[in-house]
# Entry
Amino acid sequence: MNNDKEQMTLKVIHFYFDFISPFAYFFWRKLPSLAKKYKCKIEAHPIVFGKLLDKWGQLGPVEIEPKRKWLHQYCFRYAALNGFEYNPPKKHPFNPLNALRMSLKEVSGNNQFKVIDTIFEGGWSLGQDLGDLATLIYLLEKQSIRGEKFSQRVSESNVKKLLINETNTAIDNGVFGVPTIIIDGNLFWGNDQIEHIQLFLEGKNPLNKEKIFENLMRPRAIDRKVFKAKDDKTFI
# Structure
């Protein structure tokens, strides 16, 4: 009976991710120990990062050349400082849809976390092509996961719909990037949010909601104007 009560009172860490993001991989590496320390349940939500970009009118990091160069430097430095191998996917960006569909709870079942772990590590530490279905099957089968069976489901209309629904739900919840973590309706974005999440879970959240609301209500003095040049490139 006590165990049932404890399960009912566990906080849930909602983890929104796309395999296309190295930052999502970095956070995923920390998530199990974080959840264990604070006795939280993890719910993993694969979503399509590209659809978030479309929704909020953003470019992805690798679509901005100086940012792409910075990103690779940051990732190699981060991995060296944290003691793990960083070897990015053979092709990037890649089409993540098959990988995301295979990692849905409704497809991977009790193996969901192992599937996510295997795909993340295969792409971002082993340099595999996560856009290639045969590679995904190989990575999973190597870990005694039924990759072939999962691969047969990625083209099913209901599975496609599940990923669409996860993405739309994320957008409805205000998710604009990956990784995003939501706990009790509080949104944390990015791999650098561990300290903030810990403070929140310890009941030491320093936020003053009244001040935040006051700042959000301040008027905008200027807006950027986006226009199309003659060569059809967008300039700010």
The two ends are 60 Å apart (CA to CA). Confidence is low (pLDDT under 50) at residues 231-236.
